[in-house]
Amino acid sequence: MRCLFVQENNNLININMIMKRYIITICALLISITSNYAADQTNGNNIDQIRAKAESGDAESQCRMGNKYDSGNGVIQDSAQAMNWYRKAADQGYPMAQYNIGHAYLTGNGLSKDSTEGVKWLKKSSDQGYAPAEYALGVCYSKGIGVDKNDQLSTELYSKAADQGNTMAQVNLSLAYITGKGVKQDPKEAANLLHKAADQGSSNAQYGLSGLYQKGIGVEKNDQEAFKWALESANNGFPPAQFYVGYSYDNGNGVDKNKVEAARWYEKAAEQGEINAAVNLGYAYERGDGVAKDNTKAFKWFFKAARRGDRESQFRVALAYIKGIGAPEDKVEGMAWMYILSSNGYNKDTCQKLENALDRATIEKSKNRANEIEKDI
Questions:
Q1: Is 372 domain-assigned?
Q2: β-strand 7-8 against 11-12: which pairing, if any?
Q3: Beta carbons within 8 Å of 65's beta carbon, 6+ residues apart
């Protein structure tokens, strides 16, 4: 059974590593910036009125036209037209349009990718106090995208956006207070920020808050609170939280043990690609924990995790093929997975023992098959 927190050198992973499980990656952060600009709430019926105002020079209407062409709302989606309208509004100093132009340069969506130009437009928007731009610029300073890396400036920008209720800024600022990057370490303030974002429905913040309650960081350790916030996040579809909810039901952490619920949540997370959930779901089917015992389904989930590089699952897949349990008996395929493990420093003794019972032709086929698999995963 895969545990929630693995151990490294017999010590629990440090706070920084724990918290990074709760923060979405920088790539996802930049991509998600688009969702922060105010969506145009009007339907396509009054597009002519909006266009007329835009053509008369109204900056807000120009930005709304850009939004419509960006999303295909009431018009045929056209990135070039979107950028044209955003630029008109941005040149008049409209902060949302400036932000959208900056985002387009940063991501290469609608304009040729140019981080320096992207930062320039984000600064114009940020200088007017537009929270999404402050947040996005904070990301740029945090990672050195289009500017020199500067943790202090990054946290200052996150703080400005967080004060306006921007949940992603609140989440990133909480990480800064946990790690002490750009600001004095303050776990209690981190917890306070995550509470604010979690109360607004941020699944990342809800999961992060769960992590603080799990470990007693900035708050009193409380398994029930940890479970409560993980469940909120899981219900919002966040895969790591779904895994933790399954794990909690599996082990009675903050909730009564319930193997059926554990398997149900593992499956939700596994279907979204959460490897740890796939491994635990494989074991659930292998043992009949919360589900009817089914070696074929166990193999299915172990195989998915194996192809994602999970060594434990690769071993289960190898044994399944070698013994013909849950998969067609296939010594070549099974040994191929064993050779993959052995070449990466795992299960060398087991691999050698199994190899000793094979003829040279089977060994050669298995090694060739291992090479094919490794190229494909």
A1: yes
A2: antiparallel
A3: 50, 51, 54, 81, 85
Helix 95-107 and helix 131-143, axial crossing angle in degrees, nearest 10 = 30
DSSP characters for 213-267? HHHTSSS---HHHHHHHHHHHHHTT-HHHHHHHHHHHHHTSSS---HHHHHHHHH
Q: How many domains does the chain have?
A: 1
Copy the structure tokens of residue 229: 């916030």
In a domain, 322, yes or no: yes
167 lies in a domain?
no
Model pTM score: 0.85
pLDDT by residue for the chain (377 residues), tens only, comes to: 765 533 333 322 244 444 444 443 333 433 344 444 445 554 545 899 999 999 999 999 999 999 999 999 999 999 999 999 999 999 999 999 999 999 999 999 999 999 999 999 999 999 999 999 999 999 999 999 999 999 999 999 999 999 999 999 999 999 999 999 999 999 999 999 999 999 999 999 999 999 999 999 999 999 999 999 999 999 999 999 999 999 999 999 999 999 999 999 999 999 999 999 999 999 999 999 999 999 999 999 999 999 999 999 999 999 999 999 999 999 999 999 999 999 999 999 999 999 999 999 999 999 999 999 999 98
CA–CA separation, 364 and 377 (whole Å): 20
Distance CA 70, CA 27 (A): 21
84 with 67: CB under 8 angstroms?
A: no
Residue 350 lies in a domain: yes
CA distance 204 to 32: 13
Q: Cα–Cα distance between 296 and 25 in angstroms, integer?
A: 34
Q: Distances from the Cα of 209 to the Cαs of 16, 22, 236, 238, 375, in angstroms?
A: 14, 9, 15, 13, 39
Q: Domain residues for 356?
A: 294-377
- The span from the CA of 203 to the CA of 182, in Å, is 25
Kindly state the helix (H) or strand (E) to which residue 190 belongs, with its residue range.
Answer: helix 187-199
Q: Is the dihedral of CA 277, 283, 288, 289 positive or negative?
A: negative
As beta bridge partners, residue 11 has: 8
Q: Is 291 exposed, middle or buried (0-12, 13-18, 19+ CB in 10 A)?
A: buried
From start to end of the chain, where are the E strands? 7-8, 11-12
Length in residues, the chain: 377
**Contact status, residue 122 vs residue 116, Cβ threshold 8 Å:** no
